[in-house]
Design goal:
mainly alpha; 9 helices; 70% helix; 0% strand
């Protein structure tokens, strides 16, 4: 266990394949209800920039997942109970979105400035082909670095909304603890993210509509991973899903 003034967590316990299996078991008997909730959450959450509404929507989804995990009845309206955590979820959302935007916006500026600079250098000399290849190489390295940073940030934030909902943490504290637990289970969470990404790609192939069919499974798998790392704070665990794996 890793010490924390309030909450402890386990390292290296996330099992990516088992998370996806348990996530499917969690939602399958009310699958279309979860599809509807995830679709509404994505639409409402995308309606306002900077994730202002995405935070409450994600809190609402995790509230539903945890209620279902405890064997409690759920209904569509529970999704909007995420607004009970509005202030703290917005703090977490801004802490997530703003750093990523701070990376992406300069990246686009760099891309266009570099592109015009390479075109100008090519028209001014005979070595334009070499300059163009060098520019492409630099851009490739630059964007690989950006993708890696975004992956690190995303894994660090993976448990922020569940911690707000399940443990009642303030947004900033939830983000801090999420980063500690996320990096304590980094490679396993990376595997879970890659598996979820593969499912998402399969959904995109189905004319993008299919991705809505994948969201309940990928998001519920994160809820299962959260339980493996932190455990649920209150209530009995429903017996129809496997318990978190033991640690040695």
């Amino acid at each position: 266990m890793t010490p924390n003034p309030q909450i402890s967590f386990q390292r290296g316990v996330v099992q990516p394949v088992e998370c996806l299996k348990a996530g499917w078991e969690l939602v399958k008997d009310q699958y279309w209800l979860f599809v509807g909730m995830c679709a509404v959450a994505m639409i409402v959450g995308s309606a306002v920039p900077l994730g202002i509404l995405m935070g409450p929507m994600m809190c609402g989804l995790y509230l539903v997942f945890f209620s279902k995990r405890r064997g409690l009845p759920i209904e569509f309206g529970m999704l909007f109970k995420g607004f009970d955590y509005f202030g703290q979820s917005v703090v977490a959302a801004l802490l997530h979105v703003i750093p990523i935007m701070a990376i992406i916006i300069p990246a686009y500026i760099f891309l266009y400035v570099g592109m015009f600079a390479a075109m100008a250098a090519g028209s001014a000399s005979d070595s334009g082909g070499v300059a163009g290849l060098m520019f492409v190489f630099v851009v490739l390295i630059f964007y690989v670095a950006i993708v890696l940073v975004i992956i690190l940030v995303s894994i660090g934030f993976m448990f922020a909304y569940p911690l707000i909902v399940d443990r009642g943490l303030p947004g900033f504290e939830a983000v801090k603890l999420s980063f500690k637990a996320g990096f304590g289970n980094f490679w396993r969470l990376l595997g879970l993210s890659l598996l979820g990404g593969l499912l998402g790609m399969c959904g995109i192939i189905l004319c993008y509509v299919g991705i809505l069919l994948v969201f309940p499974i990928t998001l519920s798998s994160v809820a299962v991973a959260y339980e493996q790392v932190f455990g649920l704070n209150q209530g009995a665990v429903s017996p129809d899903l496997p318990p978190p794996p033991p640690t040695f």
